[in-house]
Amino acid sequence: MKSIAQTHRTELKPTIESTVERLHIPNMRNKDFSLSNIDQTQTVLHLFPNMVMNTAIHNGSIQLVADDLIKQNVDVIVVCSTSEVLLKNILEQAGLVVTEEYNRLSISVNLQNSLIETGPGNLNCKAILFVPWVTQTMSDSKILSNSIFEFVSKSLHHILYHPKVYRTVAFPAIGCGLIQCPVNIVAHAMIDATITKLKETMLYF
């Protein structure tokens, strides 16, 4: 994480709290969007105590936030549905209506490769997106990185091409809990997937 912050010229301070990646989806009208177009900004930690890193992208930003996923004030909260602990916690907090909706929708799909979208229930968002994450191995950093990249890319594709207009989304720090994936691999993969997906997508809000 420190090397990532240095690359982006962004201040990064250590935290032991769980991390959430919040993505503000920008307006994109330029096909030539690239890393060189990214405006790097300094994090104002005394104003935003839970924010670890903030990087501006045109009219939006990528934020690394040390906070609880369910507390994020965004349009869409993405949940790793193959994480039993996270799934249980989200369903409990979202309430009975969301739990019943998720259970009903999950009956007719393969939970290992299908996305499930539900209403927000008790959470402060417009929708909850349940997305499976599966990796063949934890020892091969390339395979691990590719699986995380695919998780984020698949989630963003669903959100960006959604009939409804969603502008903000929060991701969990995939694999950084009980599995203890290397944080630098997870961060790089999630940020790279976000920039790649936004680069290939034209949005007109």
Protein model, in words:
It is a single chain. Helix content is 32%, strand content 20%. The protein has one domain (2-199): 3-Layer(aba) Sandwich (Leucine Aminopeptidase, subunit E, domain 1). The protein has helices at 2-7, 84-94, 96-106, 141-160, 183-199, and strands spanning 19-24, 39-40, 51-57, 60-66, 76-80, 116-118, 127-131, 168-172. Strands 2-3-4-1-8-5-7-6 form an 8-stranded mixed sheet, sandwiched between helices. α4 (141-160) packs parallel to α5 (183-199). It is an alpha+beta fold and 205 residues long. β3 and β4 form a beta hairpin. The protein is globular and about 35 Å long. The chain contains 5 helices and 8 strands.
Short summary of the structure?
It contains 5 helices and 8 strands.
